[in-house]
Automatic annotation (TrEMBL):
It comes from Coemansia helicoidea. Its EC number is 2.4.1.109. Keywords: Glycosyltransferase, Transferase. This is Dolichyl-phosphate-mannose--protein mannosyltransferase 1. The keyword Transferase applies.
Length: 361
């Protein structure tokens, strides 16, 4: 019995033509009785092999090659896989109207969970002793020394300044009453609460960009909404909310960057890549734990470049451009962002303080 086999031809560098799927008709042995091939093959009556009859030995082997236009295939840009149609070149990231509505409802629910009774407890809790105090020093411009990078602490100082904190309250011990001292602590706690709230849509978009179904995206956002550790640390004056926010932003931008993999060096491709580097630098500027994020993106980048090295459709100059782009966006940009926030740190802390004993300004 005759059967059909599909063969796909791949263009090699320097080839003059490309071929689409070529259908091969495998014959039968000479002793097989005469049979007819189904008219559905080849497009019906007339030409293309439809209605072929006769001994199998006469049928033999035949195939049809369809030339394709490489000019249209090259529209995807440098480094795009050849043979990819318009559908393959389109980003796989898309969120429907119903998904946006579901995300909006989940975010409203998360806002209630994150912001409910944010004023409780009305006293200094855990490491608010340290980071509330540092916020006051930024407001007063008093130099201090701390083991953590400055960004998250400066964000608390900005939130406190907007809320009316004058930097006088010293947060010197756990349990001190905020209300009696007139400290606008709710405004300072609002900043990490909003960053924790932002992690809900960030998680949803990240899962969608990675190609997961709408139900999986909604489930991931709900899990972030009700996760106790994330909920607790986002309601206090602690560095972790800022660290997790910028970590989430980094991973989201990195996932969105890969939705543009068929359009290398396009505007969106560069935007997502640069935003990945900026947010990675911000995460590193909050706590040194951000180095684990740098390692994660670094290993992922090496894997991506290794796969491109084995892709015959990517020339060596194009590969060099990919390498240079990632070096700039994922190494130079994060380091620049990190040094920038330290520059702001030293500019703001222009008065001598207790930090002089550890390191001169």
């Amino acid at each position: 019995m005759a059967h059909l086999e599909n063969m796909r031809y791949r263009r090699q560098p320097g080839a003059a033509a490309a071929y689409d799927d070529a259908t091969v008709i495998s014959g039968m042995s000479p002793s097989t009785p005469t049979t007819a091939v189904d008219d559905s093959f080849g497009g019906g009556d007339g030409g293309g092999g439809g209605g072929v009859a006769g001994p199998a030995s006469d049928l033999g082997y035949s195939y049809e090659k369809k030339d394709l236009d490489y000019a249209s295939l090259g529209a995807a840009g440098p480094g795009a896989p050849h043979g990819a149609g318009a559908a393959e070149r389109a980003p796989r990231f898309a969120i429907s109207t119903n998904q946006w509505l579901a995300l909006a409802l989940i975010t409203v629910l998360a806002a209630y969970v994150r912001l409910w009774r944010l004023s409780n407890p009305a006293s200094v809790v855990f490491d608010e002793v340290h980071f509330g105090k540092f916020a006051g020093k930024y407001i007063n411009g008093t130099y201090f020394f701390d083991v953590h990078p400055p960004l998250a602490k400066m964000m608390f100082a900005a939130a406190g300044r907007l809320a009316g904190y004058d930097g006088v309250f010293d947060f010197k011990s756990i349990g001190l009453d905020y209300v009696a001292a007139g400290v606008p602590y709710v405004g300072m706690r609002l900043m990490p609460a909003l960053l924790g709230l932002a992690m809900v849509p960030i998680s949803y978009v990240t899962l969608a960009a990675m190609g997961h179904a709408a139900d999986a995206c909604a489930l991931g956002a709900l899990l972030v909404t009700f996760e106790n550790a994330l909920l607790t640390q986002s309601r206090l004056i602690l560095l972790d909310a800022a660290l997790i926010f910028f970590t989430g932003m980094t991973v989201m931008c990195w996932a969105l960057f890969f939705t543009q993999s068929q359009r290398p060096f396009s505007g969106r491709w560069w935007t997502y890549l640069l935003l990945t580097g900026v947010n990675m630098g911000n995460a590193l500027s909050c706590k040194w734990v951000g180095l684990f994020l740098v390692a994660t993106i670094g290993v992922w980048t090496l894997k991506d470049l290794w796969e491109r090295l084995g892709d015959l459709s990517v020339s060596l100059p194009q590969l060099a451009r990919h390498f240079a782009a990632r070096t700039f966006a994922l190494i130079v940009v994060p380091l620049t962002v990190y040094l920038f926030w330290f520059q702001i740190h030293f500019m703001v802390l222009h008065k001598s303080g207790d930090g002089n004993a550890f390191m001169s300004p």
